[in-house]
Amino acid sequence: MTTNGHAAGRGDLVRASVLGLLGTRGPSSRADIARILGVSPATVTQTTKELLARRLVTELESVPSAGGRPARLLGLDRAAGYAIGAKVVADHIAIVGVDLDGTVRSSESVPWTPGPHDALDVLCGAIADTVARHDGNLLGVGVGIPGAVDSQASGIVDAPTIGWRRAPVGQRLRDRLGVPVLVDNDVNTLAAAESVYGIGRKHDSYIVVTIGRGVGCGIVQHGVVVRGANGGAGEIGHVPVTDDGPTCGCGNTGCLEAYVGEAGLVDEAVRRGVIAAGGTVKDLSLAAAAGDAEALAVYEGAGRLLGRALAGVVHTLDPECIVLMGEGMSDWSHWEAGFEAAFRRHLLPIRRDVRCVVEPWTEDQWAVGAASLVLATPFDAVAGGEQGELVRARLQSAVEGVS
């Protein structure tokens, strides 16, 4: 029997499988662990005893059992390892330290400009400073970039919005830090976070859609983040929705993002006279909250376009559910009416019950997603390529009691 790429077996394989199970499914009883892994209760008892002694696993609350005394749940011990996550945007770098159980131990924002020739040096220095302030078993560093990344392991980045072409982000960070480094598109990092700590614990195939400055989509099929041939899968913001239309940041016209990204919303609000030239999406949000009919119409129209586009994505990918998140979620109540009507109407009848989950948003989530590139790899035997193997080796050293 296998679970998330781990073969059930004896010795180290059982220890790794138990950690993987707790990482992907969350706190579980010993009986559930034995049943899912297909090993004897005695083996699980002995294995978890070792993991408890090494502080990789901890006992949590009791839950009712079907007869007999209540079962104790086991969960990952945050002291077993941690990751650093960094989200790169146009004007700052958000950096977090995240323990193995998903607890955020630190969070900071570092001002940053991507254009100068030393931008990569500044990025490396900011992350190195964070690493130096932490103690414990650092499993690796994850970085989320608003662009295409050829592979998580090599980390070569093409990100037009920040002016990077073939930037060797992964190698530069590895040279500076001397630890495993995984780099991916920022929305893919959120999909990775969902696989470890969120909806991926219950669903194998789903999409994560972000609404904010732009529009992004992370695709998970059968528990694996789909990256495409060149690391650019999921760029639904650049699906053309009109023959002509406003110019998008990518240089094309009529893209979905040009209508429903922040800049597109602001342009439409200015055209309708809701806000003055030079206004911001915050001004639009305040007007909608105050009941301005034209402001509400801006969001409703954007919701309709997004709903139609996502109906097409559902027909293409057939996900179990959709997770909606991002900075734009603070105004979702204004989007929702236009979105729901258009989305359901354009779905085939057999797809109309697909679930949409709207998640609350904080700035830290981007960086936590980046850290999840690292934290997901111990629980997936193929994730991250060579760098993922190095992450797993670091956790295995803790399993074996090697300092």
Automatic annotation (TrEMBL):
<protein>
    <submittedName>
        <fullName>ROK family protein</fullName>
    </submittedName>
</protein>
<dbReference type="InterPro" id="IPR000600">
    <property type="entry name" value="ROK"/>
</dbReference>
<dbReference type="InterPro" id="IPR000835">
    <property type="entry name" value="HTH_MarR-typ"/>
</dbReference>
<dbReference type="InterPro" id="IPR036388">
    <property type="entry name" value="WH-like_DNA-bd_sf"/>
</dbReference>
<dbReference type="Pfam" id="PF12802">
    <property type="entry name" value="MarR_2"/>
</dbReference>
<dbReference type="InterPro" id="IPR036390">
    <property type="entry name" value="WH_DNA-bd_sf"/>
</dbReference>
<dbReference type="InterPro" id="IPR043129">
    <property type="entry name" value="ATPase_NBD"/>
</dbReference>
<dbReference type="Pfam" id="PF00480">
    <property type="entry name" value="ROK"/>
</dbReference>
<dbReference type="InterPro" id="IPR049874">
    <property type="entry name" value="ROK_cs"/>
</dbReference>
<feature type="domain" description="HTH marR-type">
    <location>
        <begin position="16"/>
        <end position="61"/>
    </location>
</feature>
<comment type="similarity">
    <text>Belongs to the ROK (NagC/XylR) family.</text>
</comment>
